[in-house]
Amino acid sequence: MVNVQARLARHEPTVAVTQFARDVMAGLTARPKHLSPKYFYDAAGAKLFEQITALPEYYPTRCELAILSENAAAIARLVPERAALIEFGSGSSKKARILLAAAPQVAAYVPVDISKEMLNDEAVELRRDHPRLTVLPLETDFTEPFQLPAEVAAMPRAGFFPGSTIGNFEPHEACSFLRHAGRILGRGATLIIGVDLVKDAKILNAAYDDAAGVTAKFNLNLLTRINRELGGNFDLESFSHAAFYNSERHRIEMHLVSKQRQKVEVAGRAIEFRAGETIHTENSYKYTLETFGALARGSGWAPVAVWTDAGGNFSIHALVNEL
Ligand code: AVI
Questions:
Q1: How many helices (H) and strands (E) does the chain have?
Q2: How far apart are the CA of 210 and the centre of ligand 1, in A?
Q3: With contact defined as beta carbons under 8 Å apart, do 302 and 280 qualify?
Q4: Residue of the nearest CA to atom 3 in ligand 1?
Q5: Which residue, 300, 296, 316, is CA-closest to 96?
Q6: Which residue's CA is the nearest one to ligand 1's atom 10?
Q7: Which residues of the chain have pLDDT under 70?
Q8: Residue 89 C-alpha to ligand 1 middle, in angstroms?
Q9: Full-prediction pTM beyond 0.70?
Q10: Residue 15: predicted pLDDT
């Protein structure tokens, strides 16, 4: 790693050797090559993801919104009086709004996200729409340890983690995340979490390889980001998007496939690709109600309720922290 750092610093002295740079160099020099899906979400990537959520093939967002809307009152009953609602990776807070409308007993909402702009814009609107709610945005990486605002220290807490983002973690990381959320929320807290379900591979494959090619653009945008931020020279035409359901590992895998043998430079370092070699860019794990329940229990959380949409595509679990 020392060599990689020196190379990065030499290539562009005005650009700090960021975690992004370190992770990209480590991932592209590993075998098999891989990149973390958390780097999809630059400004362009976040916009493309918004477009994905509206695609006819991408059922998770629609199904989760339907479950939330249909069961908002029952879900809200699990949130204590004068509670603080903490959302991990809040984004546009669209789903939290459904819960907040059904849970007037919530005294404070703490959206946690790395996007300062989004947090501030949403906070203004939420304060306008819920004048009695204290909105305390927290700009941080929600997967890392963080302190809750002092204002909520004495309040009972409920966590909210929609979107099946937990599916983008490896199962051991999902377990670590649930334990980390438990430490932040405290013993006895409730966690409301969205989890995508195992289903017919055809439906899954279409959801991650849509006809309009938006998911392909989203995947390839990672190379554009590397070109821009790390002085890369990836030719986007010579890579293609691949997504498929790996039924043995219960996960969608996304890859960027090199169409030919080629050499690419990133931060002054040459990276060689064989024809057909891939960069593994994302896993999206799918659970059954039972496998997710077992994961939760093994991470210190007791499942207390679960809701699904009529088609059984997606689930929202309510868990109580036992640790
Ligand atoms: C954010 N996450 C839950 C999405 C998923 O379905 O795994 C990311 C995504 N990747 C491709 N399409 C959507």
A1: 10, 14
A2: 12
A3: no
A4: 165
A5: 316
A6: 208
A7: 1-16
A8: 13
A9: yes
A10: 42
Contacts of 93 (CB under 8 A, 6+ apart): 87, 111, 122, 126
Q: Which pLDDT belongs to residue 17?
A: 76
Please give the angle made by the CA atoms of 84, 89 and 91, to the nearest 5 degrees: 100
Give me ligand 1 centre to Cα 167, in Å.
Answer: 8
Residue 128 and residue 103: Cα distance in Å, rounded?
A: 17
CA dist., res. 153 & res. 233, Å (int): 49
Q: Structure tokens of 249? A: 């590992």
For the record, the structure tokens of 304 come out as 């207390």
pLDDT score recorded for residue 12: 47
Copy the structure tokens of residue 224.
Answer: 């554009």
* CA nearest to 178, candidates 322, 62, 74, 12: 322
Burial class (CB in 10 A: 0-12, 13-18, 19+), 16: exposed
Instruction: Among 168, 203, 222, 245, name the best residue to mutate to test ligand 1's pocket (greatest count of ligand atoms within 8 A of Cβ).
Output: 168
The phi and psi torsions of 169 (rounded to 5 degrees) equal -95, 145
pLDDT in tens, 238-267: 999 999 999 999 999 999 999 999 999 999
Q: 3-class SS at 64?
A: helix
pLDDT of residue 2: 40
Position 290, amino acid: E
Q: What is the pLDDT of residue 115?
A: 87
- Token couple for 17: 């050797």
